[in-house]
């Protein structure tokens, strides 16, 4: 048995972990995957050559790079029986906040909240693909990934058009207080998702480091919307909200392309 360590520089939260798991699903030489999200490391236990695994990881464009390969005597791996239930939990949290942020974003006229809601939906897609594709055929997994990716891109493009319309038009200021309050709750929700998934890995990881939370793209986006809300109030301008919305829509599209790569 061989043990290969990868550094995944863009692995910020469990959604990237699930993308990697789906990408490597079906490679028969893999015995186990051990993820260390705080340190952005992936340990692959495998037999035979690493070339196919390395190529699949690089194709995801998550900054994957092989660090080392060595032999190991480890042959037994304990699977977490609660993993599926945990995935359902984080899927539910992300989807509920997608609905909350989309609704409040439309009501408060905040493109930042609308964009962040799509980021929540993107994470829901990743967890959903992981769950619904388990035990299914490769064709089924690819079909689900393709539908999710194109749907995500379509929503983001609609968002871009709306941002452009608001830049050129004379729109009322978004409700900055709604932006801040909802984003704070979304921040808490992302922290909970990260916590329960990391807690499931090992007892040592149950007590999260602050860096584990605050290196997450999701959390950075939440903080960005909060700052945009403060600037909207301070400057009496909708531009900060539109700028953060544009940035998040770009991130959503990048995530969609990663999902589409799973369908190839």
From TrEMBL:
* Cation efflux protein transmembrane domain ranges (all copies): 88-261
Q: How does it sit in the membrane?
A: Multi-pass membrane protein
| Location of this chain's protein in the cell | Membrane
Q: What is its main location?
A: membrane
Q: Where are the transmembrane segments?
A: 86-108, 120-140, 147-164, 176-198, 219-236, 242-260
Q: Which domain of life is it from?
A: Bacteria
Keyword presence, RNA-binding: no
A Pfam family assignment: Cation_efflux
Sorted alphabetically, the keyword list is:
Ion transport, Membrane, Transmembrane, Transmembrane helix, Transport, Zinc, Zinc transport
Family annotation (InterPro entries): Cation_efflux_TM (IPR058533), Cation_efflux_TMD_sf (IPR027469), CDF/SLC30A (IPR050681), HMA_dom_sf (IPR036163)
Protein name as it appears in the record: Cation transporter
Its lineage reads: Bacteria, Pseudomonadati, Bacteroidota, Flavobacteriia, Flavobacteriales
